[in-house]
Amino acid sequence: MTPGRRSSTFTRLLRHGFTDATAAERLLDTPELAPVRNDPFLLEALGATADPDLALHGLVRLLEAQPTPAARRELLDTLIAAKPLRDRLLGVLGASAALADHLARHPGDWQALVTYESQDLHPGVGEFERCLAGAADPVALRIAYRRCLLSIAARDVCGTTDVAETAAELADLATATLRAALAMARTEAPADAAACRLAVIGMGKCGGHELNYVSDVDVIFVAEATEGTDETKALTAATRLASHLMRICSETTVEGSIWPVDANLRPEGRNGPLVRTLSSHLAYYQRWAKTWEFQALLKARPVAGDQDLGQAYLDTLHPLVWQAADRENFVADVQQMRRRVVDNIPPTEVERELKLGPGGLRDVEFAVQLLQLVHGRTDTTLRSGTTLKALAALAAGGYVGREDAARLDEAYRFLRTMEHRIQLYRLRRTHLVPEAEEDLRRLGRSLGLRANPVTELTREWKRHTTVVRRLHEKLFYRPLLDAVAQLAPGETRLSPEAARERLVALGYADPAAALRHLEALASGVTRKAAIQRTLLPVLLGWFADSADPDAGLLNFRKVSDALGKTPWYLRLLRDEGAAAENLARVLSAGRLAPDLLMRAPEAVALLGDGDGAGLSPRGRAALEQEILAAVGRAENGEQGVTAARGVRRRELFRTAAADIVGSYGTEASPVEADQGALVDLVGAAVSDLTAATLAGTLRAVVRSGWGDTLPTRFAIIGMGRFGGHELGYGSDADVLFVHEPQEGVDEHEAAAAAHKVVSEMRRLLQLPSADPPLLIDADLRPEGKSGPLVRTLKAYEAYYRRWSLVWESQALLRAEPVAGDPELGRRFTELIDPLRYPARGLTEDAVREIRRLKARMESERLPRGADPRLHTKLGPGGLSDVEWTVQLLQMRHGHEIEGLRTTRTRAALAAARDAGLLGEEETAILDEAWVLATRVRNAVMLVRGRAGDTFPTQPRELAAVGRYLGYGEGHVGDMLDDYGRTTRRARAVMEELFYDDVH
User: Which of 18, 363, 519, 964 is most open to solvent, judged by the fewest CB atoms within 10 Å of its CB?
Assistant: First the structure.
């Protein structure tokens, strides 16, 4: 061959899509292809395949495998003369190395691609049964199966059939194969065949008439005894037949296997009997079946064996399928199963998962099946086991928007075609998009993407998965808006009853009210209504993911009514990705956060910062600066305190929102894994906010009554949880007040001024207003309620020197200056340090007294009728147990161990561990119990809007507490069990440490 000729051929090969033109030239020069080397139709046909190099290589192998020169000539002549064969054969060879291998082993099977009659275009089960009829053993069955597969693949890659028709043909071929395998099993065991009636029920994609090229074939077996046969013996015989059928299809032979037959969808899965009677199936589904098992039955259809028994199985069990939506937590169960599937994908594969990944095939299938189960009860047109047929029926009935259905149909077809072509290459079960350049190129070309296959494929794939991700949850909610909106003529809407059904299934307790809210929000032709119609499908899904969807929707309507006319509100929700989801979580998590928001709806803006900074609690210095500045601008003390309380309300909302978002998680912000971090966030934020509010109130009262200078120096000492930086949303501010007369000021005058300051602060912080009150509790002062509200530093010193009791020294462990004169606060701390951290530790009498007080508190202070096991403060293993244990260690060892000289429980626990006073496991157990009890108290306040020390009894409130703590719907029992287990362990540690004299 001349250099110029070679160069011309080389260029032509590249132009026709060959990537290794040198190797292709060598193959074209082989003797087998010599007669057709220059045929223009051959090169053009090769260039039209997914992988011209692969197709040419497969063709040469097929020609080499022909048994005689005459057979080789017949193949070549037919290839050149018959365009249908040329397109089919080369199309298969360019798409499937596995089928090229089959043809090389069975070189006469290319004849299966010659026929081009009308009945050949869309064969059914009967045609496939005839193709398999000659197979007398498992090896022959595999050869015949792949011969049929050749024709299916040929129609697929040539575009004769679309992806839905191809999937249906694959399911029909599977049906014929199961029948052939069962016939073989029955032939080999005629006694077993005579003893039972056995039906094979197709499930999954086989049952749904939408099978892949390579997939497990899901089945369920049902059997009955023949007349005169004992049922137990019949079931044993049926089990042997079913097992043999599975082996015939699944076992590896010299011709490989066909596919695994998977019976794990049967009752009890792999732990249950392989074969059951119909009555046994019915009993299981009536008593024990889970939601997903009814969902799986959507696709059930008889495929092999006794047809009458198979039909009886369907007739018996299908009515139960359409009752599944009435089950408690139905939607949550389905959605939780979908999330669990995603969570089980290895992180390195999730972005390449066509089937199970976000925006993948399973998202479409789950969404369609959920809507079928909700609405198929009353509309029998929806009861198809085939995804695309069911989607079309949902659109036709108005259950899914037509445009949404069309986009999902397009995306599903594209993704299924990708899946088919990926599997066809090696005939291997996989749903992963390949990474190698040559594999992506072949895949792209097989889908008709020829200009830049890899780039175009990636773009189209991502476009379709994005469509699915955006639409699959909105499918449930958009038609609800159409049900209350004005539609164009000819558009179908959900009926009121269908809308009610859907809302109930999604967890809405009052669907009529929900529809009224939707109508108020989304009806009309204004720009505001148009934006709401865009937002609401997503928001409804987030509300449904909470324990109280009705409250979420109602609160959203209230906020929208309050802010709807402001230019920034809807724009914020539409344009700031996190804002809408954050708002949905906050509005549906309980009463506290929505109540705080309703008093000043403009705080919604805090939810919209893209970097999340809007929800980060502000430090004490910044808060104090803002509050003092507001007090300075106020005309009088009352206005100043009103301003301080307004800041407090806004910041409480910020903290609650951050806590809720961290506990629920959002698409932009995953659930905070460290529960202790959320407790610390709330405790520090609310304590700092309370300190800043008291500082501002003190400044306002002093300015109003005395100008710039009070006749006495004045300090506020935080006590209890306040001093420990552990305040919850509903906590009072435990404090002590201390003063010291200014130089030259009469003590009586100073005391009167100090008392007036305290009295006025308490009054102003509790005045009825839109802002939550801040209650000041000074009961931990010397002499308790009987003693004066405020004392001088000298009076405290005299009291503590002469009269102090051990419980007062224990209470002072939490004392920390929080507002007022810092120097006076420091001197108060110096005064009490020897009391709370005694130089010689505690005397035996003091230890006994502390233990006596603890026992008395447990017996006397627990509210009547309360379950002590669930009381977060006084119950076994609750806050009191952990705190008294830690405080006993602090009083015993705080003088020597600096780390124990802290007001914070968790910090003291860590210090005790570091000092060797507690073991790692003991510390972890106590810390876990304290964090959990604190989280429960915070949850109760968030959910009910008022403080409480025990779990709510109202089911929806209890579920909301569970949701905040990370428990999905239907898992309230797990939450209570976990709480009991955690606190029991803490109680055991407490009893060992608190009553052990060694510590």
Answer: 519
